[in-house]
Design goal:
By secondary structure, this protein is α/β, with parallel strands linked by helices. The protein contains 10 helices and 7 strands. The protein has a 7-stranded mixed sheet with strand order 3-2-1-4-5-7-6, with helices on both faces. The chain is globular. It starts with a helix and ends with a helix. Keywords: Methyltransferase, Transferase. This is Methyltransferase domain-containing protein. GO terms for molecular function: methyltransferase activity. It holds the Pfam family Methyltransf_11.
Length: 256
């Protein structure tokens, strides 16, 4: 567990390497697209507070939370907490972004349970992570290679596992993308030479991208939108005998 708690610092340092900047650029584009139309009052990023993944969102209140063992960054609105115990009220957050957060937590399923607790109904969570079934993940199993990922394959959370956890909770998958198909290279020059792999991989082997970005929405069964009070009062004044069966069905469905 101690090694996992130190991982955010190692991950943050790796993200400044050529391969890390390649991953950051792709993830920034995907997350920007996934959070751009999310509305509400409170947005939280859990993990890597020096990296602003909320920049494309217009929610007024934003905060960046991270583990006490990774006290880096000087951004305003920073919170120190454990992801397994988020210091927010139940159903108080509209958007939560988690860059590689599940990969360094001691109990990633508990983290998702906390996310489900604090999110508002129809609230959105966006997660990124390494894909253990990519070429980068397969490369990690080969001995003798010096260039390594900051997150070991056993700690990586696959999209398939995420989907299973979503089913156990009240999340519904909204969208997801794989990316970064170039081989893991140590220099920007070689990453640039392999850039043709982006289009080829996305077309022929879409699930083989080195990283993924997934957005899910919290669904709450039985929740109905209630119209304005004046409209409800007007319905009560209408005599039952003057309302047609079709109108009755519309009213029962919450429309009209």
């Amino acid at each position: 567990m101690a090694a996992q708690r130190e991982m955010p610092v190692e991950l943050a340092e790796w993200l400044e390497t050529p391969a890390g900047r390649y991953v950051r650029a792709w993830e920034q584009r995907q997350v920007d697209a996934m959070v751009g139309n999310a509305f509400g009052y409170h947005a939280i990023q859990v993990g890597l507070p020096h990296w602003n993944l909320l920049q494309a969102n217009r929610i007024p209140y934003k905060a960046w939370a991270h583990s006490p063992s990774a006290p880096y960054g000087t951004r305003a609105g920073r919170l120190v907490c454990e992801p397994e115990q988020l210091p927010f009220d139940t159903q108080s957050i509209d958007l939560m972004v988690m860059p590689h957060t599940l990969e360094w937590c001691a109990d990633p399923h508990q983290v998702l349970r906390e996310v489900e607790r604090v999110l508002m109904p129809e609230g959105r969570v966006v997660l990124t992570g390494f894909n253990p079934y990519s070429l980068w993940g397969l490369r990690e199993s080969l001995p003798g290679l010096e260039l390594r990922l900051p997150v070991p394959v056993p700690s990586q959370v696959s999209p398939a596992r995420l989907k299973d956890w979503f089913k156990l909770l009240s999340f519904e998958m909204d969208r997801g993308r794989f990316g970064c198909y170039a081989p893991l290279c140590a220099t920007q020059l070689w990453l640039h030479r392999w850039r043709f792999m982006e289009h080829a991989g996305d077309r022929w082997w879409p699930a083989g991208g080195a990283v993924y970005a997934i957005a899910a929405v919290k669904r709450v069964s039985g929740v109905r939108l209630v119209g304005p009070a004046w409209r409800q009062a007007r319905r009560r004044r209408v005599r039952r005998g003057a309302v047609s069966p079709v109108a009755n069905r519309i009213n029962e469905d919450g429309h009209g």
